[in-house]
Amino acid sequence: MKSWAIAFFALLTLAGCASERVLPPADPALFQDQRFGPPSAPISAADIFTLTPEMKQYAQQVLHKQQDKALQQALFDALYSKGQLQLEYESTMTRNAAQAFDARAGNCLSLVIMTAALARELNLSVHFQSVVVDDSWSRSGNLYFSSGHVNLTLGKPKAHLAAYDATEFMTIDFLPPEDMRHQRALPIEENTIVAMYLNNRAAESMVNGKIDDAYWYARKAIAYDSGFMNAYNTLGVIYQHHGDVAAAERVLRYAHQQVPGNTVVMFNLAQALRDMNRPLEAQVLIDELARLEPHPPFYFFNLGRAAMAQHDYARARSLFARELARDPYYHEFHFWMAAASYMTGDLDDADKHMKLALENSTARSDHDLYAAKLDHLKAVEARTRARQ
Predict the structure, then answer these.
(1) Separation of alpha carbons 236 and 215, rounded Å
(2) Does 243 score more than 60 pLDDT?
(3) What confidence tens digit (pLDDT) does each residue in 58-87 have?
(4) Which tens digit of pLDDT belongs to each residue from 178-224?
(5) Which of 141 and 317 is assigned the larger pLDDT?
(6) What's the CA gap between 61 and 81, in Å, rounded?
(7) How many CB atoms lie within 10 A of CB 88?
(8) pLDDT tens, position by position, 339-349
(9) Are 235 and 30 spatial neighbours (Cβ–Cβ below 8 Å)?
(10) Rounded to two decimals, what is the model's pTM?
(11) Please, what are the domains in the chain?
(12) Which CA distances in Å does 232 have to 33, 167, 211, 239?
């Protein structure tokens, strides 16, 4: 979601933030339908929670094998216990319920959607939540992404519920319990979950170079939840990449008015103003950003990459360590720390961080890359030790 002086940089937010408020339908002037071609396939939210016959059969198997467990626990065990469905966390795309079940993989939002769909088939009550955690960051080229976090709470079958009883509910989360112990969760409606899904698909379409698809996904996300500001930010970035700078400024200005403290929107609006040759207005936002966030995500990482380019590997290690202190689970930080350690001759540290890059990778392509690099590193270590 952040960057500095790369040829073009944009910040995007993925699923995880609740709507700030209920707003009326978006102003039609924010949209530029005539500037975009039709999507490569129909953009629809109708099938997000739709179950396939295989999923319905699986839900019935859960019911028949329930035994003396609460139905919520039986569903959780069937989906996420070892030896059961064996779901894998995979971040490449946001899947709907059927796609996640078929692939046996999905990101946080995909797994929430799939679990909710199966829970409803079992007549369990479903409540979605946005979890108040520090956003995690990732990047693809010059696009930087901020990801929040969502989970869901399942209640007993509706026919069995009487007065409210907290023991009748079970929260299902895809982060380790120790990471969630003191986190606050805010209830969100299904239309916001749908908007999050569509917004994620818009961002993923941008990564894949499908700008027309990205536009229609973002537009539909706003239609589903006009208070979901992440979708307006995504739409603004889409306009920037499409060369529609005035449209970008208009939609980002609207988002900034609604959430004036949002640094992501602020950054992208400043970029749009610079592109429109309005440097004084942009500077006001840049100064405010410097006050609110003097060291944005990827700040030390980008400095570390610059140090690597200058062959200052010791400094690069120091800078990567500072970024890892802020986000110890992002695979690319570990990869570059491994590279810097390798260049300074610290093969043990390089090996450690390459293993951590492999463990924390959430895309199969990254996983395969790091596995190959780790094999190469082990071969180098073996040859080095053989000579000693």
Answers:
(1) 10
(2) yes
(3) 999 998 888 778 899 899 888 887 667 777
(4) 455 557 888 999 999 999 999 999 999 999 999 999 999 999 999 99
(5) 317
(6) 15
(7) 12
(8) 999 999 998 99
(9) yes
(10) 0.84
(11) 12-215 (no CATH), 299-382 (1.25.40.10)
(12) 15, 39, 15, 11
pLDDT at 22: 64
CB distance 342 to 308 below 8 Å: no
241 to each of 116, 260, 281, 386, how far by Cα in Å? 35, 23, 21, 52
pLDDT of residue 15: 59
How is residue 93 written in tokens?
A: 């795309």
Cα–Cα dist 2/178, whole Å = 29
Task: Tell me how long the chain is.
Answer: 388
Q: Using DSSP bridges, classify how beta strands 124-140 and 184-188 pair: parallel, antiparallel or unpaired.
A: antiparallel
Hey, what are 336's tokens? 């570059």
Q: Name every residue whose Cβ is closer than 8 Å to that of residue 351 and which is 6 or more positions away in sequence.
A: 338, 374, 377, 378, 381
